[in-house]
Amino acid sequence: MKNLLKNVIIFLIVFLAIAGLLSTFRLNSEKVEKINLQKFVEQIDKEEIKDIVVEGEKLNIALTNGALETLQKEPSETLGELLKNYNVSPEKIKKINIEIKGATGWSYWLNSLLPFLIPLIFVVIIIYYMMRQVQGANSKAMMFGQSSARDSSKNQREKITFKDVAGIKEAKEELQEVVEFLKNPKKFTILGAKIPKGVLLMGSPGTGKTLLARAVAGEAGVPFFSISASEFVEMFVGVGAARVRDLFQKAQKNAPCIIFIDELDAIGRQRGAGLGGSHDEREQTLNQILVEMDGFDPNLGVIVLAATNRPDVLDPALLRPGRFDRRVTIDRPDMKDREEILKIHARNKPMGSNVDLKKIAQHTPGFSGADLANLLNEAAILTARRNKTKVGNDEIRESVEKVMMGPERKSHILSEKERKITAYHEAAHALVSHELPEADPVHKISIISRGQAAGYTLKLPLEDKHFHSRSEFIADLAVLLAGHTVEKEIFGEVTTGASSDLKHATRLVKSLISEYGMSEKMGARTFGEREEMIFLGKEIREQRDYSEKTAEAIDEEISHLLSEAVKTAREIIRRKKSKMETIVKMLLEKETIEKEEFEEIFTTSKT
Ligand code: ADP
Ligand code: MG
Ligand code: ZN
C-alpha cells in the first residue's frame, strides 16, 4: 500500500512537470500571431507576404516586415483552391515564395496528440503497477501452503563441519553414520540395511543441537532443508499440513538430502493435551509429518533430523520405530568438553599468554556450549573496551561472573547500614559453606551488586556432578538459610535481601521430599504428578495424588527440615563468630574476597 502511494506521487510529479514544459512550449509558439483567412487574403493583396510554408493544415507565413504568422486552413482544401475561391490574383501569388512540407510534421502530431497521450500513458502505467501489486499479494496468498524451508547447503560462507563442534563424541559418531549413508547409500543398501529415516537430537538449550545438524549437512555436502517447527503453525487450519507436504516433496526431488526440523516440540507435543481449539492445527500438522515420514522410501536418501529440548512432551507416535527411531542425547559438556569448546571459540580471538582454558573449564561447571561461546565473546568485548589487544585472564574471570549472575551494578550504591547487612549476609553464607564438608567450596565473596542480588557468594564444586546426595542438599539448605539466620542474630530482624534465599530453600526442600524421596519421614515415594497443560500459553499443573492428611504431613516435614537447617547455620555462626567478623571486616574494606584470601583466614589464626 505504501509502495502504491509512492508510485502515484512520483507519477503525479512527472505528469505535472511534462504538462508544465508543454505549456511553456505552447506559449513560445503563441508569439507567432494567428490570423484568419480574411486577413491573409488582405495581406496578399497588399503584397505584404514574403513566403509561405505549408505544413498540412497549417500555413507558416513570413511577412516582408519580418513578422511571423500562422493560419489554420480547412483540411479538405489545398492552398491553391483556397486562393482561387477568394479570387486572389495569380500575379500576386507568383510573388510569394510557397513551399510545401510533408503533411505530417512531427511537431504537428506531437502538438495535437501529446495532450491526450500523456494522461493516457499515466493512467496505463498506474493501472499496470496496481495490477502488479495486487498480483504480488495474490501470489503470496497462493504460496501459503509452501514451506519456507531453506536449502542452506549452498551457503558456503558459513559451512560448518564436525570440526566446529567440540565434545559430544557419541552424538557425532551416531551422526557420522548418517553422513556416510548420505554420501554412499549403496554401501548400506547392498547389505540389506535399512537406513534410519529420522534422527532426533535431544538436549538442553545451548548444547549445540542446531550446530550439530548444520555440521551434518556440511560434512555430507548434500542439500539441507532447515525449518523451525514453529513455521508450520499458522493462523489457518491446514496450512501447516500443506507446508509439511510441500517440504517433503521438495526433499524427495532433491534426494539425497537432509530435512532439519528445529524445535520439534512446537508441533510434536502429545496430541489431545490442552484445552481450546488452538491445538487442532498443530495436530493436523503433526499427523501430516507422521504420514510423510511413513510415506517415503527409506532408501531414497532423505533423512529427517529434528531437535528438541523437551523430549518428554513429544507425542509417542513420533518416537516409534520407522520415524524418529534414532535418538541422540546431547549432554551438557563436562570439564574436558568445556575446554574443547573454549578452544574452538578462542580460535579467532587473540588470547593473552596467561589464559589457561583448562582452568576456565574447571570454573564453569554447568555451562552449556552457548554459555561458553557467550563467555568468550563477553571477554573479547571487555578487552576491546579496555583498549587491550589480547584477551586476558581478568577479562575472562569477570565475564564468567557476568554470565553466571548478570552484570555488576557498581552504580547501585548501598547505604552504610545496607552494606553492613549485606556483608554479614554473604559472610554467613561463605562461613557455613566452608564449615560444612558436603557443601561446595567458596570461590568468591562480594558485596558489589550484581543482577538482582545486593551481594553474592560464589561456590563451585570441585568436579562435575551428575548426582546429588541427601547430605549435600541438607548442607546446601543450611548455606542458603545462613544469610537469613545471621540477619536475625546480629540485627534482630530480617531484610528483604534474604527473600530469594528463602524461596530457593523452600523449593529445594519440596523437591527433596516429593521428587527425590529423601525425607525419612515421608518415605521413598513421589508426591504429586506434574502434567503439562496447554491453555492460553503454557502452564504446568500439579496433580495431587495424595490425601489431605499426607499434605499436612508434607507441610510439617518441610518446616521441620527448614528449621533443622536454620539450627545448623545458627550453630556455626555462633561458634565461628570471630571468623565471621574477620570476613565482614574484609568485605567492608575491599568489597570482594577471592578464594585464596578466604582460605587464608582459616589457616592463619586459630579460633
Ligand atoms: P541448541 O542446542 O539450543 O540448538 P545451538 O546449537 O544453537 O544450541 O548452540 C548455540 C551456540 O553455542 C552455537 O552457535 C555455538 O557457538 C555454541 N556451541 C554449543 N555447543 C557447542 C559445541 N559442542 N562446540 C562448539 N560450540 C558450541
Ligand atoms: Mg537450537
Ligand atoms: Zn543470600
UniProtKB/TrEMBL annotation:
HAMAP family: FtsH
Positions bound to ATP: G203, S204, P205, G206, T207, G208, K209, T210
Domain of life: Bacteria
Pfam families reported in the protein's UniProt record: AAA (PF00004), AAA_lid_3 (PF17862), FtsH_ext (PF06480), Peptidase_M41 (PF01434)
Gene3D superfamilies: 1.10.8.60, P-loop containing nucleotide triphosphate hydrolases, Peptidase M41
Keywords, sorted A to Z: ATP-binding, Cell cycle, Cell division, Cell membrane, Hydrolase, Membrane, Metal-binding, Metalloprotease, Nucleotide-binding, Protease, Transmembrane, Transmembrane helix, Zinc
Molecular-function annotations in GO: ATP binding; ATP hydrolysis activity; ATP-dependent peptidase activity; metalloendopeptidase activity; zinc ion binding
Enzyme Commission identifier(s): 3.4.24.-
Location of the protein in the cell: Cell membrane; Membrane
Task of the protein: Acts as a processive, ATP-dependent zinc metallopeptidase for both cytoplasmic and membrane proteins. Plays a role in the quality control of integral membrane proteins.
Enzyme active site: E426
Assembly, per entry: Homohexamer.
A Gene Ontology term for the protein's cellular component: plasma membrane
Cofactor binding, note field: Binds 1 zinc ion per subunit.
Keyword Cell division on entry: yes
Gene from which the chain derives: ftsH
Family: In the C-terminal section; belongs to the peptidase M41 family. In the central section; belongs to the AAA ATPase family.
Annotated Zn(2+) binding sites: H425, H429, D501
Residues of the AAA+ ATPase domain: 195-334
Any Gene Ontology biological process: protein catabolic process
Name used for this protein in its record: ATP-dependent zinc metalloprotease FtsH
Cofactor(s) the protein needs: Zn(2+)
Membrane topology: Multi-pass membrane protein
